[in-house]
Amino acid sequence: MAHEPTRLRSSAASKTLAIAAMLVCGASLAHAVEGGESFLEEFDELASDRWYVSDGWSNGDHQNCTWSKDQVSVEGGVLSLGFAAESYKDRDNVCGEVQTHERYGYGTYEVRMKAVEGSGLNTGFFTYIGPVHKQPHDEIDFEVLGKDPSKVQVNQYVDGENVGDEELVDVPGGAASDFNDYAFVWEEGRIAWYVNGELVHEATDPAKLPSHASKIYLSLWGSDTLTSWMGAFEAPGEPVAAQIERVAFTAPGDDCQFPESVACAD
Question: Count of alpha carbons within 13 Å of 111, Cβ hemisphere only?
Answer without folding.
Answer: 24
